[in-house]
Write a structure and sequence with these properties.
The structure is a homodimer. The first copy, chain A, contains 17 helices and nine strands. In chain A, strands 3, 4, 5, 6, 7, 8 and 9 form a seven-stranded mixed sheet that branches. In chain A, strands 1-2 form a two-stranded antiparallel ribbon. The longest helix of chain A has about 35 residues. The radius of gyration of chain A is 23 Å and the shape is globular. Chains A and B meet through helix 8, helix 9, helix 10, helix 11 and helix 12 of A and helix 8, helix 9, helix 10, helix 11 and helix 12 of B.
Chain lengths: ~525, ~525
């Protein structure tokens, strides 16, 4: 069964939030316990129900209904403000630290990933509206979004474009104070559902005669229901049949002169969208960690109960049984330790990012965002797979619960910008663009030991040697991201007094050496990659 | 769409089979083309049907039916002897080389993994019956099994034991010329189905007063239908609901004084079972590679068609379109090259094992078996995940076909002995037991370059230093297996004139450095692993 790791959470809160103007530490800890209890006792049992029942799409009404239990849970989340702890109190948010927000989000997503995705997206939408929307839009939409009465969606992708948004065709024609928007959007998470009274779609579109590529894109607020209560002309045309997250609708949305209101300036859509996307990307990293944590709990429980073979260490043999719990076997320990130590490190990384969000060190947050989205989701899914492996046949059948975590979690490596895109974002927009200044500020704050500093410098040297060759830089990017992720996490956990020494030693001896592999790939692996005949 | 890589296959046949007493090279190549066409055109379309329809269990009849299309395909496989090419001609087999068999098996499993599992198990059962059964049993059962009229199953696991078969409770009481067998077996792949006229279960059980642990185990042949045509008392009590392989039944079998005949000597059951398990373990490695190959084909097709963003290299920009095919992007090349180069290397490893099977170099085959089962399935599933990643959202939805390959293939890392067990088998039964002599013979044959030899020696030194501490040896085992796998594959592909130079260079620069990580883990990672407080 899933049990939230409250001791780790409390350590991170103490370390990275401390007493806060809106919440003192004791209040935050009470809050954590309440959310933990809710996630364990209410959300977790709904997770399998969601997988088996899934959503129901009604084509004649263009509507989607989610499982009944989800409505009750969503109401509890909203009534208790579980997902708005860090939002502006002016709109009903808690005004608390981001560290607290990330920890709560992790627990909710461990309990039920599909359901937790809905408020995660709403949060991102609120962030960009607060930063960019007109006062009138703010007044109408933000408070009900913060309370969960309305939810938010992000409408970027079209059939011909996902990664490359410059190819967007959706058209926004000005009319009176608003625009009429026509086009098709696909892969829209929670783009249609019956959890909230209204859905606030944030839609990328081009105004007539806008320039090509991304500089012609604007952002529009397109509500499912108009302020007068009438249905807007944005309808769900179908839902995807996915590997997992069966209870989280992924909608096709058809807009046929739907009414939309401009958010921010015309042709500044990408900038505004990134203000939604960046917190959502951190949120996706949190989702990855959340499934990895739930998988760890399942695997640890299994390893503590299943008896199979004798311990190789005579002292560990339990004479009351004909076999020992499998937790005594070295390979089982190995698998659990990989999961436990990397979960610990990733959680630390996310809390550390939350700290910089709270301190308004936005360049460091921007740098950490693609690392969290990409590294955390990838390592987390590896961890879920390891947990499945540890559980043997039980890991592969539905009764074991772990296989659902894999299927549900796998999308985190893909949505909100694939992990490959994150690596390009890191190396292009976050490192090269300011000549590594943000990275230097981060390292100054982290105080890495000499060997880690040397490692990062070696990686950077290869980058600098290839500034004239963007293909090589792009080929290097994924290994560079992982090298940086592990180095940062290594600094964080070795400086953490709360972490067990054996956990630190394991991380140092078993995980940290991965960085050498990535350095090899950075230094040598790119040219053969680009030269392969078959792909020229 | 799946297209078999016939050029690679032909290269391996030429290299490792040559002209053979039963088949000359030209005949084998014709055979390959026929199987390839069948797999691509007939099997592949049934794969999704199998996933969606699944098997149907009828509790009142204790019966399982597989999708209708599977019956037709199974008949073609049997009528053409596709799965019996390497079996003894005395019983209707083709008597051909194992290299040919592995290549055909790969194609069949790429086309439809669930269906291909049935003849794979039958093959394993035939192997142990030929080696161990009485003449009377051979006469009754082997020919119809070789032809596919009867299928085989392997009944090892019980609720309280999978890995640790010493805990088996199923009882075999002698009666006349046979035994009456009572107990419950679980996780029995194709333990019940309607593809063949009869199912020959090979069942591990203990005779009365047999000693504890595995030395008390005997092997029995328990047919679903008795020689007189009556139903034997072995009934399917249910089927598992799995992550994938929905069309491959995983049965609970209840035996209630079912009639069984001893195979081999009493209390020699484990030895006989391993004669079934070893070819099946190689077969599972082939299954892993098969899904990785199918995934590669899907990803390559996707990358060659999907247009998104401009190439960073102006020479590669296609002016006829507003975006380039994603195959031009370095990160896409990187993902494809990891899959392509490791698939190539793994296929080579399996063919090389087939060569030693044909040469009757059984110690080398025994050594390679756990490496193939474990390394190939793990790398293959990583590859399927990479293919899914490359395909973005399409990788995650059912229409993209790739997610099914992941779900279906994931069990290969678990069944026929989990990958952790393979590592212990390698290091304990295959290396330590003969003081590394088989490994030395293998290396002599492989002729590794000096640096690879030094690497393997370093790993062996750590093993030798810890012979008195089995826990450390066990902790080291998984990294040791991977180090050896990559080293062997590196030797094989760098010496292969057929492989593209850029593929070899990529493997050398990007994949081979993994061995250094594994060496680090071998040398440093085991003590902290064993010392972690939480798991003591």
């Amino acid at each position: 069964m899933y049990k939230p790791p409250l001791a780790d959470y409390q350590n991170l809160l103490t370390q990275y939030a401390g007493d806060h103007k809106e919440y003192d530490l004791a209040t935050m800890q009470q809050f954590l316990q309440a959310v933990g209890k809710f996630s364990q006792e209410r959300l977790w049992p709904t997770n399998k129900i969601g997988d088996q029942e899934g959503i129901i799409y009604n084509p004649s009404e263009h509507s989607v209904s989610v499982p009944k239990d989800f409505h009750e849970c969503y109401k509890i989340i909203c009534d208790n403000g579980y997902t708005s702890t860090a939002l502006d109190p002016k709109y009903g948010g808690g005004g608390g630290p981001w560290v607290l927000h990330h920890i709560i989000s992790e627990m909710l997503a461990s309990g039920n990933l599909s359901l937790s995705t809905c408020p995660m997206l709403t949060n991102g939408a609120v962030t960009t509206l607060i930063a960019n929307a007109s006062d009138s839009l703010k007044e109408q939409y933000i408070e009900p979004m913060v309370s969960g009465k309305f939810s938010g969606s992000m409408c970027l992708t079209e059939p011909q474009c996902g990664t490359d948004l410059g190819l967007i065709k959706t058209l926004a024609e000005p009319k009176d104070d608003h625009y009429l928007i026509t086009g098709q959007k696909i892969w829209i998470t929670f783009g249609e559902h019956d959890l909230s009274d209204n859905i606030v779609h944030l839609v990328l579109a081009k105004t007539p005669n806008a320039p090509d590529a991304t500089k012609g894109i604007s952002l529009f607020l397109v509500p499912k229901y108009l302020p007068d209560g009438n249905r807007n002309l944005v309808f769900c045309g179908g839902v995807e049949h996915k590997m997992g997250q069966h209870a989280s609708p992924t909608a096709v949305l058809n807009l046929d002169k739907a009414q939309g209101w401009l958010v921010g300036e015309e042709r500044h859509g990408m900038k505004c969208m990134f203000e939604m996307m960046n917190p959502a990307r951190i949120g996706v990293g949190v989702q990855g960690l959340a499934v990895s944590e739930a998988a760890y709990q399942l695997a640890f429980d299994f390893a503590s109960q299943r008896r199979q073979s004798r311990s190789l260490d005579p002292k560990q043999q339990d004479q009351g049984h004909t076999a020992d719990i499998i937790l005594v076997h070295p390979d089982i320990k190995r698998m659990l330790l990989i999961i436990e130590s990397t979960n610990y490190a990733m959680r630390h990384l996310i809390a550390y990012c939350g700290y910089h969000q709270d301190q308004n060190n936005l360049d460091i947050v921007d740098l950490l965002t693609p690392i969290i989205k990409s590294y955390v989701t990838e390592q987390s899914l590896d961890n879920v797979s390891l947990a499945m492996q540890l559980m043997g046949g039980m890991g592969y059948v539905q009764d074991g619960l772990c296989e659902q975590l894999y299927r549900d979690g796998r999308i985190t490596m893909i949505y909100e910008g694939t992990n490959g895109i994150q690596a390009l974002d890191l190396i292009g927009r976050k490192i090269a663009k300011d000549q590594g200044k943000s990275l230097m500020r981060l390292l100054k704050h982290l105080k890495p030991p000499k060997d880690i500093e040397a490692l990062i410098n070696q990686a950077n040297t290869t980058l600098l040697q290839n500034t004239q060759n963007p293909s090589i830089i792009a080929a290097i990017a994924p290994s560079y991201l992982k090298l940086l992720a592990i180095s940062i996490q290594y600094c964080l956990i070795t400086q953490d007094n709360h972490a067990a020494d054996s956990l630190k030693t394991f991380y140092t001896d078993y995980i940290l050496p991965e960085t050498k592999l990535y350095l090899d790939q950075i230094q040598k692996g790119s040219s053969s990659l680009l030269d392969h005949q078959k792909y020229l």
